[in-house]
Batch of 2 targets.
Target 1
Amino acid sequence: MHFARVTGTVVCTAKVPSWRGQRLLLVQPTDPHGAPQGRTLVAIDLVSAAPGQRVFYVRGREAANALPDADNPADAAIVGIVDDVRAPASAPADSATGPPGGARRGPGAA
Amino acid sequence: MFLARVVGDVVATIKHPALEQRKLLLVQPLAGDGAPVGRPAIAVDSVDAGVGDHVLVVDEGNSAAQVLQRPRGPIRTVVVGVVDEVAGA
């Protein structure tokens, strides 16, 4: 699971039937401190998150498993709203810039 | 699986039911030489690890389900061991 900030909502009148009734949100992945990292994603919202909130999301097959019926094509799902991240300064959480091409990995990578 | 350092924890009141009562740790993946590499991830704890611990992490849904002893759900990243020593790195 990784951090993101909700930046908007996505409305699709025509969408796959297995997503009926589900909200789609636009999220900007971030590092643990909230700095944007990588490209914007569209994710299924399981926690009624709102634009501006810090959330965490799961990618890959496990995103589809987050819905009551796992037989759906979701590849990113918001599964929590961040209240707080407690990371002592002595253990820097952002000391790495990411793997080669890390921010550009395709769907399925988490 | 990968080696990581626990660098923090995450507090979330509102979360998917599969994550209820689970401790969420912030883990920084490590290279073979112990240097941080890649971006930190949020992992579910299964071994009572804490900040500063050197840990072993799985990042696959079926492994996670087995470790947590529950049906497959939205969890894929789980701390499954606290590393005592790595030889030959």
Target 2
Amino acid sequence: MESFLSNNAIYIVMIIVLIVWAGIFLYLLSLDKRIKNVEKELKDGVQNEK
Amino acid sequence: MLWKIALFIILSFVSIAGIAFPIVENPQAWYEFPNIPGLEENAKIIFFHVPTAWLTIIAFLTSMIYSFRYLKRKNLDDDAKAYSSAQIGMIFCILATVTGAVWAKFAWGAFWSWDPRQTSIFALLLIYGALFALRSSIESEEKRATLSAVYSLIAFVTVPFFIFIMPRIMKGLHPGSADDTNAGPVVNFNMNSSMLLIFFLSLIGFTILYFWMWNISYRSIIYRDKLNKHLIRG
């Protein structure tokens, strides 16, 4: 496995790109969630004041 | 939620296929790409570089549409949508320029050679750069929104010329130029069906990614403004 990967370096690039993409994807997911929470808090806060 | 999973799968597949699928002289298996004369291994950039240029157009178009809606309805939420879309468009415009320059070093021999394609994207960067300079120089919210909406409408008129027309009618190094020997418009240049499929999957994936980024971006701007107003009043 190791010798195959060191002879075909392009697969290592592929694995790295996949890891980077997974990281970006998870970051976007968490951002989305965070904003959803802020939206909810803001809505609840405005209703409580009324 | 389903589209997020689809996005993850599409772009993961595009990364795997775009990077690892081999380029051969006579493709037989479905996972083999044809050798395009003059491009060779460099041809794989099409799966990642072209979508960034594509998103530039989509983002500036969206910005133009919401600028128009702002002028019609005078709702500041539309301004937030137009502004965040222009921001993402600018990011992808820079990415297209930089990835193109890195590729050009190995395909043409120099990072920058004022090819028609490079010149036109440089002009586009300047035009949309001025939009942000304009926005940051105006204090009043309504005035800023109106002026930048008008500017965005006029700026978008130049986009089809700079992206689609000028680089194709002029001779140049970029694939798809008037004297390109690989023939035809950029999209068709000697790709086989599996290469075309992955190319279009990549375009679809990046488009979904754009809408997600845009959605997160304008929601945060809209709620920041709401919160600000709330705090000032409260």
